[in-house]
Amino acid sequence: MNLFHVILVVVVLGPGVVFALFALLWLLLAWTPSERVVSSITGLTFLACCSGVAALIWKLASAPSITVSLGSWFSVGTYHFPLVLMVDRLSTPFLALTAVLSGLIGQFSATYLHRESGFLRFFLLLHLFAFGSLLAFAAGSFDLLAAGWEIVGITSVLLIGFFHQRSAPVENALYVFGIYRACDIGLLAGIVAMHHWAGTASFADGSPSLTGAHAVIVCLLLFLAASGKAAQVPFSGWLPRAMEGPTPSSAIFYGAISIHAGAYLLLRAQPLLAQSLLACALVILIGAATAIHGSIVGRASADAKTSLAYATLTQVGIIFIEIGLGWRWLAVAHILGNATVRTMQYLRAPSMLHDYHQMHSAVGGQLSATTTHIEEMLPEGIQSWLYRWALDRGHLDTILERWVIAPLLQVSEYFSRGDRTPMPSTKTVCPAEPAPIPVARAAKRGG
Amino acid sequence: MVPTGWLLHTPVLTGVSVIGPWLATVGLIAYQRQARIIGSMAALVSAIASATLLWKAAPGESLYETLMLLFAGLTFGAIILLPRRDSEAGTIAGLLVLLGSTLLAYSTGNLLAFLAAWILSIIPFLSATGLRSRKWRPVVGLLSSSVAIALAIGFIVVRTGTFSISHLQGQSPGGLAVFSLLIIAAVFRKGIIPAQAWVADAAESGSPIPTALLLNGHFGALLVVKLIVPLFPEMDRLFPVLSYLALATAIFVAIRALAENSPRRLLAFLALSQSACILSGLESRTAEGVTGALVHWIVVTVSTVGLFGVLRLLEVRFGENLSASRHLGLAEHAPRLAVSFAVLGLTLVGLPGTLGFCSQDLLISGTLTTHPLIGLLLPIATAMNAVSFFRLFSRLFLGRHRTGFTVMADALPRERWILAGIVLFVVLGGLFPNVTVVEHSSAVDVIDESSRTFENLHRGTGYSGNNTSIQRQPPKPELEVNRRTGT
What we know:
Shape of chain A: globular
Number of strands of chain B: 0
Number of helices of chain A: 18
Structural class of chain B: mainly alpha
Order of helices and strands of chain B: HHHHHHHHHHHHHHHHHHHH
Number of helices of chain B: 20
Number of domains of chain A: 1
Distance between the termini of chain A: 52 Å
Largest sheet of chain A: 2 strands, antiparallel
Structural class of chain A: mainly alpha
Oligomer: heterodimer
Number of strands of chain A: 2
Distance between the termini of chain B: 30 Å
């Protein structure tokens, strides 16, 4: 293992180690570090990550990739879970984006969330998210990518429910979790299918060799996972709900990293995708539908963050089209540009109204009207129909609730007829409830 | 110098681990006020004896010793974790009886001892005041399974005249009738469809932590591992029936949990759905599937006991009418309980970085090899369970916090350390899974005696496994569990 291998391992593990340390100290010793300590350690961690990534980029100028094999995570018989980290010219931009933006978001949030009750929780989740993202982007196999992918998903959900004193963010977090889990079945099944048919899910030594129907099935399964994570049609309904989280987390998740993770997955699977005309066509079709959907719905969005979310979605749809057409490097450049601009826009969103009022005053209350919008060229009947369609966000949530969630709950209710019993009553089931015990007394009594 | 070498003999250690808890119940009669101390000491002694057995076990022959250590350790943790109002002498005595009988079932190679352990393990839940369920289904479920296994073992003993499991391997004693009775016993005890309803009733109406321990003895799976697979290799055509029943249970219960609002019932459904997968893995007879099933056994056991423990701690703090129909916001008052609950629940549904991820990965991979339908449907059941769990977590811990009571304690020190130990176990087990996985991949040999017997019987008939099938492993001399454990 040479120096660059060590750097790669440290870059990926760094945020994870910081997360584990903070979490353990809090859980076992009830130690809550001060805001200054948290933000300083966060800054140092991501500075180290950025330096590490810079060193890796310098090395990649003279080598196509850097691969570190850490053995198997676990192995049984011929089956093993390879622990291989790899950076190449595809993963490097994503690693750099994650390290730089996580550091920036960390510094921004130290001020933005000052004296917020969930300050430590936010930073813990930021570190966990950065670890998951770096793991996913530096993975040398789809197995390891899936591990990072799942970690990104769960941190995303927990940050949507960050302001958990209100019911709406919590319910929205549950909704997003449901969509993620449903779509992640595709990733899991795709990986298992790769192991089953190709004997490996590693791409460190080239893509798994699959042909014909096998390649098509695997591509479609991976595309399901990518669509869920990238909020493509018909799963776009979760994106506006995800805006319930704090603005810094919206910026890094839905402006930059998480929303583009689906595109990264497809880029990784490009050799397989190239073998399947059906999968390519589907990627283009869904990408186009998403771009149109995002563009129309975004125009009727009432708040800044939701408008930005749909603007991002439109671009991600176009990125999917580029991937479907095989324009790999254009897609990567598009992702980098979109992620950077959207992050900045998200972070500026809370100040936008203030800026607008300032500008309004500066020009003496004479801000000129925007120019003609393209939708104004349509007949008036279609315009109003589109407006209603956009207000209901393409009816995607309604369709999902009416055709998936409601029937499932009906089946569940039906199943419950066989074992339904009333809720237990305190009086009948258990001894009388004693009066609540204050903390000091309870600790003294030991129970 | 006093010679102490005899203490390390296998029969002595097994005796200490099994009989120790039973003897402690006698002490409880005299010293009822020290019930928690006596109970935890007895469980600790049992755990130390099991650990020594595990340390002495030969490589690849440590399956049951691992399970003994796990169960004894969990019982120790459960007794410490029990809230004050649940730690009466009767409840602790019931737990110790359950511990002794479960360890006896794990360690024995004798049919009669196995039957005795089976029946003893349910007696506290039929008689003890603090443990008895107030509903009829748990009683019927547990009694039905006991009657079925008693009849099956009776038939076997009458027909063969032997009590030794190792002597009966591969002989299909009693044929289809006994095989069917054993399957019925496993189905009732494990809560497989159509006998799934008693598990939720038991969790709802009994004491949750002891009930979690009862469910996590996994006697149904043990029956499959210890009797059904080794004794009836010729019935292998019928084994997939068990897998499909387990899959149906996993899916049915996962869907059922989606609309459940009672936290206890919901947790019971999750535990049942996830543990049903164990049978599919055991039946897959691939190295990955069987290893995945055994690791999953550990994951389900540890996380379920922890989850029920946290739920019970919440109940004694915030009242027993907790419901998942509205947000309770308890994380504000009990953040450490919330974190423990979240980690253990996500472990149960396979969060990466926890042991649950490894077991799910192996299970799905193993079952896909032999039963593609099961391999594809298991992730769907797990996904639904994940959603149900997250709904329960968010309703209990998130949302507007409850008012109307004084400030309540978060996890007390004794609770915090036990929960932290459980959380660390699943997380460290997930980060360094090779310790657990390698242990159980070699333990596959213990289970697979029947497959080799079957292969020997049918050599040349065209039956063969695939490249990961455990039939391909080199034959070993007959393994006698009772030779090592001395029971």
